[in-house]
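User: Please predict the structure of the protein below. I'd like the answer in structure-token form so I can feed it into my own downstream comparison script.

Assistant: Understood. Taking the following sequence of 247 residues as input:
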Amino acid sequence: MEDAIPAEFCDSLTEELLRIEKEEGIVPAANDFEGSRTVRIYNLLARGAIFERVPVHESVLPIVEGVLDPGCLISSLSSISIGPGEAAQPIHADDQLIGLAKPHAPVVCNSMWALSDFTEANGATRIVPGSHTRDHSPAYGKHHESAAAEMARGSVLIWHGSLWHGGGANRTDQTRVGIAMNYCAGFIRQQENQQLGIPLEIARGFSPRLRELLGYGVYRGLIGHIDKQSPARLLDGSATAKIVWDR
């Protein structure tokens, strides 16, 4: 999706990520998957109000709801800043650890927001087109032919969770900055534990839709209830849920 994110919003997000990185002293994880020259900041919804606009963005969320369904959840929200000299990330599938035979209907739908231009030289996400239809996940650490998903700043790449992909190598002197906004089906466990990772006092200030995306709701009248009530009651005491058994 080209021109999905306004330039001023890209600027604000980039500035906030740099602030968090500096204030919290966040450094690369130094493992093969996350990279030795890549700064990743997790649990962004707990780190700044500006990130509340990301999961519900009007250009992206409707597409994700079409791939999954309106009961989808936020799986994780993090930033990925690939620094100069970083090697290519191993090709993988985001649903690789979910124990379902492949190919299968999407249970994960993820997106990458380009806060800087994504080029083959600076580490644009590499994808293996059509790989989401295969009957297996990629062998970790093996070479797989892939193509760079080049896109201009402000664009968003969206993919089926079974698609084989990985961050590219950065052969430039500039950092490639992106936000990974990841979603999963309402019946799949989220990658980041949203209910425990985000303090209740912060979640209480979120919009109703964002609360639902975090998991403060009941999927299809059953999954996620607490004593036949919506977990959103923990936030303001007023939310109700009609459980499927009572329908």
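That's the full token string. The two ends are 40 Å apart (CA to CA).
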